[in-house]
């Protein structure tokens, strides 16, 4: 029962992360300003920083792909119930959580600006990593 609840929580959080990342990706691809007055307008500063892309690919697009992969992986697991697929999902989430911590540190100490949507995606990444640890302990 706890395992299923954890899996559904990861699926729900990943869906929110996917939607958040799609919004950011569309804003960036359309060169539209990202409004987030809650953080003093830092979204555009973060989105236009040199840290906002890896080899030319916006981090928001990588977020879309990451969360889509997790959603697809969980869907596969729910259909097949293979331990290996669950392990792959958990390890992917651990990587995502560590990367999210790195991105938050960049905002805090290097860019010195905050993007609300980025913080949401990163918080989801960290929460999912913690849930992944829980899943790995339940094996």
TrEMBL record:
Gene Ontology CC terms: membrane
Q: Give the way it sits in the membrane.
A: Multi-pass membrane protein
| Subcellular compartments | Membrane
Q: Does the keyword Chloroplast apply?
A: no
Q: Which InterPro entries match?
A: VKOR, VKOR/LTO1, VKOR_sf
Q: Which parts pass through the membrane?
A: 7-31, 51-76, 88-105, 111-133
- Identify the Pfam families for this entry: VKOR
Q: Quick one: where is this thing mainly located?
A: membrane
Family, similarity comment: Belongs to the VKOR family.
Spell out the protein name for this chain. Vitamin K epoxide reductase domain-containing protein
Give the source species.
Candidatus Wolfebacteria bacterium RIFOXYD1_FULL_48_65
